[in-house]
Each structure stands twice: as C-alpha cells, then as structure tokens.
Design a protein that fits this description.
The complex is a heterotrimer.
Chain A (H helix, E strand, L loop, with lengths): L3 E10 L2 E11 L3 E5 L6 H9 L6 E6 L2 E5 L4 E2 L7 E4 L11 H11 L4 H14 L15 H13 L5 E5 L7 H18 L2 E6 L2 H7 L2 E6 L2 E6 L1 H6 L4 H6 L3 E11 L3 E6 L5 E6 L9 E7 L3 E4 L9 E12 L2 E8 L2 E8 L13 E6 L4 E5 L4 H7 L1
Parallel strand pairs in A: 3-9, 3-10, 7-8, 8-9
Antiparallel strand pairs in A: 1-2, 1-4, 4-5, 5-6, 10-11, 12-13, 12-15, 13-14, 15-21, 16-20, 17-18, 17-20, 18-19
Helix pairs in contact in A: 2-3, 2-4, 3-4
Chain B lengths: L1 H7 L2 H25 L14 H7 L4 H32 L5 H6 L9 H12 L5 H10 L11 H25 L3 H9 L4 H12 L1 H17 L2 H7 L8 H9 L4 H25 L24 H29 L5 H6 L7 H7 L6 H30 L7 H7 L6 H12 L8 H24 L4 H9 L4 H12 L1 H17 L15 H5 L1 H5 L2 H25 L7
Helix pairs in contact in B: 2-14, 2-18, 2-20, 3-14, 4-8, 4-11, 6-8, 6-12, 6-15, 8-11, 8-12, 8-24, 9-10, 11-14, 11-21, 13-14, 15-27, 17-27, 18-19, 18-21, 18-24, 20-21, 21-24, 22-23
Chain C lengths: L1 H15 L5 H8 L3 H16 L1 E6 L3 H14 L4 E6 L2 H13 L7 E4 L2 H7 L3 E2 L18 E12 L24 E4 L6 H13 L2 H13 L4 E2 L2 H9 L5 E6 H10 L3 E3 L6 E10 L5 H12 L1 H9 L3 E2 L10 H4 L7 E2 L3 H5 L1 H8 L1 H5 L1
Parallel strand pairs in C: 1-2, 1-3, 6-7, 6-8, 10-12
Antiparallel strand pairs in C: 3-10, 4-10, 5-8, 5-9, 5-10, 5-11
Helix pairs in contact in C: 2-3, 3-11, 5-6, 7-8, 11-12
The chains are: A alpha+beta, B mainly alpha, C alpha/beta.
Chain lengths: 376, 561, 353
Amino acid sequence: MAILKVEGLVKAYKDLKALDDVSFEFGKGILSILGPSGCGKTTLLRCIAGLEVPDEGSIYIDDKIQTSIHEAILVPPYSREIGFVFQSYALWPHMSVYKNVAFGLKLRNIPENEIRKKVESTLDLVGLPNLGERYPSQLSGGQQQRVALARSIAMEPRLILLDEPLSNLDAKLREEMRVELKKLIKKVGISALYVTHDQEEAFVISDIVIVMDKGKILQYATPDQIYNRPADQFVASFIGRSVLVEGKMLKVESERCQVTVPEFNHATIICHRPENAAAGAACKLVIRTGEIRLNSKRFDHTENVLEGSMNSREYRGGLTDHRIQVGSREIVVTSHKFCPMINIEGDNEKIFLHIDPSAISVIVDRPQAVPQQVGA
Amino acid sequence: MVKLAYRQGILIPLFSSILAGSLIVTPILIVLFRSITTTRLGAAAGFTVENYFRVFTDPQILPMLNNSLLYAAGAAALGTGLGALLGWIVARTNTPGKALVELMPLYPMLMPPIMKNIAWILLLAPKSGILNGFLHESLGIQEQVFNAFSLPAMIWVFGLTCVPLGYLFLLPVFLSFDPSLEESAYIAGSRPIHTTLRITFPLAVPAFLSAFVLNFLRGLRSFETPVLQGSPGGINVFVAKVYDSMSIEYNPGLATAYSSVLILVSILALVFYVRATRFSERYATITGKGYSVKVIDIGKWKYATFLAVFAYFLVGIAIPFVVLIVVSLIPYYDYETFMKFPANIDISNYYRVLKHPSFVSGLYNSLFLSLAIALTTVLAGIVMAFTIYRTKIYGSKVFEFIGTMPLAFPPLVLSLGLVLALIGTPAYNTLWALGVGLFVAYFPYALRNASGAIVNIHKELDEAAWVHGARWRHVFFKVTLPLLKPTVAGALFYIFIEAIRNIDVAVLLVAPGTEYGPVTLFEYFRVGQWAEAAAGGVIYLIILILAVSIAKFVFKIKFSL
Amino acid sequence: MGRKTLLAVAVSILSVTITLGSAALAASAAADPFNKVSNELYAKAKQEGALVVYSVWDVEHIVAILGAFSKRYPGIKTNYWQGRNPEIVTRVVTEFQAGRDSVDAILSDNAPPVIRAAGAIMSYETVQKDFLVLHDPTMPIVSLQIQALTYNTKKMKREDLPKSWEDVANPKYKGNVALDDPMRAGPLSTQLAALKDLWKDDARFARFVKGLKALNVPVHKSTSAMFRLVISGEYAIAMPALLHDALTEKEKGTPVDLVVTAPPIVFPRYAGIYAKAAHPNAAKLLTEWLISTEGQAALDSVGREASRKGFQSKTSIENAYPAGTKPIPVNDKLFMEDPKKWLDINVKLLWEG
C-alpha cells in the first residue's frame, strides 16, 4: 500500500514550469527529494500539503484522493492529516512552546488533560522536557527545530513533510541533527517526505531518494543506486564533487569499456560497461573526485593512472584540497591528513592520480548521436 | 472561484471581502453611472458624455493637476518619511526616555488637520505672521522670510498631518524585526547606519508604500489646506474643480467626471504599490524563527535622536497648540495683541464653546459610532488583506483597488453615492446608514494598514496553522490577528480619532435629530471661526490627551508583540 | 414705528406668560396678520406634530431658534440637520427625486433658490410681506445676509479709505485688499450680481471687475478665514465682510470698522418649504413665526440679521449706517438659481481675460 501517490503533477508559474509531469509512488519509510534550488521540490511538497493547487494531476495519501484537478477535488490542508516542518520552523512567536505543540490538538477537541499528556510526551521524545513555558525566542536554533518537529509529530499524522528543516542550523549541529532526526522519525514510525538540496543529508536520512531538476524527476532510487548508478549526467554531477569530461568509447567488452578522453591528453580510461555502450559512441564520464587516489610516486600498476601537476593546495584542517592540472583540466581532489601518499610541498610538482572504475559513471550520449559517429 | 474557495475552506473571508467590496463599490458605481446619465441638479439626460467632454477639454486641468501632484507627493513624502524615521528611532534605537519618546509622536495625531492649518497660518503669514513679526521686531529683518501661502508651506503643514500614518504603519514593522537580518549585515562589516539604510528600511518598503499611497491620496483630495493656504497664494489645486462643480454648479455628474481623473491617478498609485510589493515573501520580518528584538546602540547619536523626536513633538503639536491656546485666550489675533499676552487674557471663547448645545449630547453618539466603526473597519480590512495575500483566490488583488477607491472620491461625491444607494432602503435616516457611510469612508485606511502589515508576516506562519488542522477562522483569529496586534492597535486608534472628528463622507447620512458630535463641535472648524475653533480644539485636545495617556498606562497598550 | 415696537414687546411678554390665557392673544390677533394665520397654522401643525429643518446656520443658532419656537408652540417636535449649502442642495434634491419626505423647511441663503429651480420647493407667500425689507412671493425671507465694506483701523487711515465698493478697484489699494473669489458662490459674486443690477451699465461693471482683477491679488475661498487675515493685519480691506461679523468684532475692541459710505448689500436668507413636506403647516408656522417680531427677536438674539423693516437691533442697517442709506438688494433670478451660468455670462470673460 502506498502511503503517497502522485500522478502527472504539473504546475507552471507564467513561463516557468515548476512541476513538469511528476509521478511517483512511495510506501513506508523516509523519502528524500533532492535537487538544486528552484528545481520544483518545494512546490511538490506544498502541493502534497494542499498549500498549492497544481495545474494538473492528482495526489493520494493512504490511497485516499487529496488533490485531483481532473475530478475537481481539493481536500483542504487542515483535513489532510499531515505534518509539515517548515524551513523557517514557522513557530508562532506569540505562543509558548507548549501552545505551539498543542495547537493542532486543541483544534481536534481533545480533552485538556490528554492534550497535556500528549504534548509532554512529545516534548520528551524530541528531547525538550520542561521547556513548555518558554517562548520560541528563548530557544536556540536546534531547540526550535525540535519544537517544530514536535508540533507535527504530536498530531500523529499519516505523513510528515519536511522542507529543508536543517538548512538554518550551523554545520556541526546539522550533522548531529540529521542522524537524530532519522532516529526520531523511525521511532515514531511515521512516513516522511524530506526535501533538501544537500546530497549527503539526503543519503544519510532516507530510504529512497528522488532527484529533481527543472520540474522533472530524474531518478528514483536508493541512495546507493543513485550514487553508483546515476541516471544521467545531472544526477551524477549533483550528488557529489565530481568532474565531468567528454570522451569516446574505443572498445566495449563484456564488463568493461575503454574510453579515450581528449582533455586528459587523450588518456584511455577503463570503466564499467554501461547498458547502451557502443564502440565509437560519444559519452561523458563523471568522475567522483572523492574517490580519486593520489600519489607522489608512480603507482605499481598503470591502468587508469593519470599524471598531473600540482597547481596549489588549500589546507582545511583535517582535509586538504589539491588543485591538480591534468591535461587541459584542473581537478580538485581532497585528501585526508593521514593519507600517506601526499608529501608534496612545492607547486608544479608531478603527481599521479588513480581512478578506480567504480568512481566513474559513464553516460552514453543519446542513441541518435551514434549513427552520426559511425558515419564519420 | 467560489468552488475552489469552498474546497479550500475560505468561503467566509471571500464572502466578507465581497460584501465589504460591494458596500464600497455600490455608491461608486452609482455616481459613475449618473455621471454619464445626468446633468445639473441630477436631472436625467439619457446617455451623455458632456460631463467628461467638459473635463477633458478644460484648459486649466493640467496646471492644476500639476500643483496637486506636487503638493500631494511632497506632503506624503515628507510626512511618511518623517513618520518612518520616528518609528525607527522609537523601535530600533536606545534613545533615552523610552516611554516619553514612544508617546510623543502620537500626540500630534490628536490635533485636527485644520487646527494645524490655522496655527501655521498664524505662525507663517507673510505680513502678520508671528515668525516674520518676531524676525522683524527682534532682529530687524525686513524681508518676509516665511510665507504661509506658498507651496512649500502647504507641503509642510499637510506633511505634518501625514506623519502619524507613517509612524503608525512603520512602528510595528520595526518593532517586530528579526535582528538576525541586521546582525548578518553587521558581521559582514556594515556600520549600523549602513545596515539601517540597506537592510532595515528596504524591508519596511511595503508598509512605507502603503502609508505613502494613503497619504498621497489624502493629499490629492484634501481641500482645507488648498482653501486656506493655496488659494490666497494663487496656488490652485485640481480638487477645487470638483468642489466648484458641486458648490457653484450643483452638478454631481460633473464632479464625478472630474473625480475620474483622481481615480486614474489613484489606480496608477496602487498599481505602483502592488508591483513594488509583489514579491511579498521578501518583506517578511515576522518569521517563525524565534528571536528577541534588540535595539541598536547608536552611541552619542541617541541624544540627537531624542532631540529629533522632541523637535517633531514641538512642531507637530506643541508650538501650534500653544499658538492656538494663546489665540483662544486673546480678544483677537494680530501680532501686537499676541505679544501682549497674558496681559489681555479673555476667556469668553471657552464660555461660548462649553455652553454649545451639543457639546455633551453629541458626544455619546460619536464615541459609540467611532468605536464601532474603528472595530468593524479594522477587522474587515484585515479579512480583506488576508483574502488578498493569504488565499489563492484568482484575481483577489482587485480588492486592493476596490478597498482603496473611496479615497479617490472627494467626500461630497461619495456621500451622494451613499445616499443614492441607501435612500430606498429602511436604513436611510437611521444610525445604520451613517455607520455604512463611515465604514466606506474609513475602510481604505484599515485596508492599507492591514495590507502593508500582512506582508511582513512570514507566510509559513499561516501555512503551519493550515497544515496542522486549522480552518480559516483558526488561522485568522489565532495566528494572523494576534501577530497583527501592534498594527491593529495603531489602526484602531487612528480610525477612532479620525472618525470622531470628521464625517465629511457621511454628512448627508446624518439623520435629522441625530446629534453627532463632529458635526456640531467641529462646525467651528468647518466655518473657520478661529477663536472658537481654537477654544473648542483646545478643550478637545486636553480631553483626548488625557484619555490617551490614561489608556496607554492603564491598559498597557503596546504597539509591539 | 413706536407702536410696532410696543406691540412686539407685548407679544413677547404674552408668549412667555402664555398661561395668562388665550383671550389676550385673541385680542391682539386682529392687529397683526401674523396672529390670525399663526392660530390657524398652529392648530393644523399640532395635528402634524413634528417639524424637520435643514439649515446651513450654526448648530447653536438652530438649536436656540427651534428651542424658542417649541416653547412658543408646544406639541410640535422639532428636529434639524445641519450642512453646508452644496450638501443641503444635494440632499434635498436627491430626496425629492427619490420621493422621500424627510425635510419640511430649509433655512438657508444660497440653497433654496437652487432647490426651487429643481422643483423641490412648495410655493408659499407670507402674510407678512408688507413688513419685509426683501420679499419673494414663493419663499419667505426670514433673515438677511448683509455685506459690509470693512477695514482694519490699524492698517488704514480713515482719509485713505475707499469711498464706495467701486473705489476698491482703485490701483492704489494694490496689496491691501483681501479679495473673495468672484468665481465661486461666495459674497463677492453676490455683490457683483447686486451691483450689475443696480448700475444697469455694462461698461461700468466691466471697468469694476477688470479693476479688481488688476489689483493682482490672490483670491480667497473662505470668507471667515479671509476676515481673520484682515483682523491680523495681513490685509487692510476685506472685500467684502459680513456685517454681523464686523460688528461683533468691533464691539469686542478688535481694530475693524465699516466703510459707511459704501451701502450694504443685502441677500435673502430664506425659509423654503419642501415640495413633499410631511408637515407643511408646521413649516409654514415656523416661517411666519420667524418673520414675526418675536421670531425676529429670536434671530437677533443669536446674531442673525432681521429681515423685518424697522426692526431695531445692533445689526440692523438703520443702526450701523447713517440715516438714508439705501441697501443694495440682489434680485437677479438667474444668479440665484444657477450662479455658475450667471458667472459664465457676466464675469468669466472679464475676470479670466
């Protein structure tokens, strides 16, 4: 049974298509919608909540119809039994924490003592016992975040929607909170839809990730699949620090293929074979720089080893960014301080890069390009 | 549209807005219709464009309109700007004497605009004015430095009457300011003054424009300053044409046709406002992130800001008030007699005002109606602003225009429209009709105030309520309204004060035998009997100042959250 | 004259001590047409039981006058609405066109002739017409608006004064004259209508208007504010002022005085009876009473000028001006009923050049 089903959602603002025929289904767990700002992910969330009316399409929660433009059905937000954690938290500044959390419960005409119990247990759950009498302005950012979550959880919704809930916290707190958030949601057992532009956050938190751009769903898969098998170059480039280079397939084997890359001095790179591989086809290689190994000396083997020269380095505490010139491209590779291979001090020194095939995603250009290649 | 509204559960605000909108638009449509079907004295004439033909072939119209625009825009800019500055000083700085500083900008509101005209004419008249007389007698300056009968003096005096709106509209914005918006600028190395100019003021744009448009339209149709100061200086404004159409020609159709020029200007002003504030999310200062408002330590400048507030207090009320008190206590005003005070004290004016037959009896009706009108218009204004900015009803922006339209009509024209709309109903000649008239007259103030303020509240605060099970009434009464509290307080106060002393728009709806305070007590202002007006005004001001001060401290009225 | 004054006093005393008996009233009835008609009207008016007045006058004046009327004629409930002339015209004409009957009598100067032109006045000729300074057979004239040429005694020496209205247009008064706007329905346009009618000389009239224009002074749209500016010394001559304003100020010691060589200009204040009046007899009774010596005394007590010939008061022409002064009346029907048209025909070209 799908907790959420979205069919053919379209929403346009003048010329801009915020949602362009979006359809997906989602069972239990945590689903992330990942994409750059303006990709339509917040619009999608707001349509699901009933805060926006799409131009076309329908939305079902728990198999019950919520929005259907075709059938002229629009369940108002207050009847959808969902939770919503806003980017700005949207805590009501004129109400205490207790009143913020109790707001929705009071509207359901639940007896006062039950409300009290529910609010207190929820505040305990999010780790904010005894703060009920405080006002939002007296809380830290992280605490406000928890209150916003508590307000939604207390309603025991069918689905909880979170709109970049961590983006207002500082980096350290954000890392802590995302783990905690995941634990909490799992503990309560509510399904959640999580919108973010942070790939790492999406991967940590969710069971399934949807990558969106320009109003379209590009990929719907588990974090692992998205990382290792990005559907297209956008997904590939968006989900991690990576370089994109153009290449041409030289030879296609059963498991692997060889690609020559003009920008890397026409070096030949061995990759996993994509499904639609064909010799002579133009393709793009997305190389995740985090998985590139560096060495100041030659590696023992020569496969997939490139030679470059160090342009500059930026020291980032435990990590160091190396700017390395390979052929006509500059690649930024980050190394950990315990990485023994890097002991280069000066600039313009030689350095060797090893790129494992697993660090490369191959995207073959559209098939119609192939005959042209053959003809040439 | 209705179906969608029903689905969204916002039928009630939609219908309330439509009801308020039709109350306002009906008299307007009636006079517009009559302007193409009637001639002098409202005589039916079939379809005729003669009225409009006369307006658009009138050679005087352009120079007069030019004067009007200069005067209205100048006064609105001066008044709203000064009001904004005062609001910022009170809300955002550590200026000493907080309680005093917060109140001082409010008192000038209590002085009816025409009292300011009289006082400033006495001060600035070229030959007989107190200031020129003083410069002449004490410093031997022969030139007439000040001239009450000039465009700058008109802008100055009407500008002063525009200050309270600017102050009341902007104070709540500055008071509810998320300091992180400013702090990020400080961290980026910006000095407080730059932060204020680049961060604080731009965020106050919707409220500022709302007050500016309101003041501008008030200026366009205001008649007291042009009559008392413009005409003797040879400065003729456009609205005089409308008055002439009514008072020499008795041709409401022609007056309406002339008003159509004002309608066009109003629509342009509103289009400008709607466009300038269309990205309303940008202006949210009240957000769902908790914060406590901090004031800026402006160092030594705090004494300068104190002096600025005090200076406004002086020119806004203290000096004109003192002049009027003295004038009300001397047998007649000329410079010599004025300077002899208090040797020549005479209290007969007070005696005359106090024994005025309806001084007390009219007060009950006025207090009751003004309070009722203030509450109704402010509530309706917020509901309409809520409908415009917080629901997804297609075309709801049209309410911005409808709700502000009464300000484009000179009072008597609108008053006629109201009479025509109500004369066939049982409400005519009852207090209800007067109530409707006052509602229409003051609704634009309530709407502009609410519409300027609602965009300062982050939309997500409302939406959080929607998704957590709130219907429109819960959203409205538990979230929007409490968050608008400071603005509501200001608007209530302003409309109450205005309605209690000015019923120009509703005058034709006062039933015979209804003693309505403003008509009677403020008749002195209407007929320009200065000494009695001064005496009446002084008594009125003393009562109001006491009432406001007591209310402020007893009920702890605050203009912040 | 003496006999009439005596009679007035007698009537006043009688009215106050009305309980003395109706026999005394009946005795004086034959002497004055008012007594006879008022008895008839009062009987009918009592049946009507109410009276609604629209007026341009100050509220305290209306209240005082209606108070005296109610005291004299108990059983008639009076109500009033106060507004400015354009407001009165608009309200009455609109109510008339909609068939409403809210008003009975309209006490005003400019408004009644305009309302009459719209057909909303019930024609009524007073039985006391022989006693009136100005008479209109369709609307009783209950009071007068009297214009006086007035000056500030500190700012202008007696010997420098203009001798007549016409003299004000002399270029030597440039910068000293506070001029009412002749193109509005104000006192100066009224004066022009009166003088044009008096002179019956278009060239002289044109010279006068052009002379005023040549003074090159701005014009005022508020009579009372203009008068204050003359008192304050901003200007020396008020062109024109109202007689009762000038006399009230003079009495207080304000440095203003009349130019008595310029004869006063008199304009009627009417009591028009509304065409659809619900209480026509009460309205007629009010107008007759206002013209009676008793009503005139009530008007005089609030500073309104009497319209009755020979009525002795501070604001009467006989009192303020030398014997033999002939007031200049306004009779031009077009001016009264459509001032805009009259101004367009007679003044506009001269004034706007």
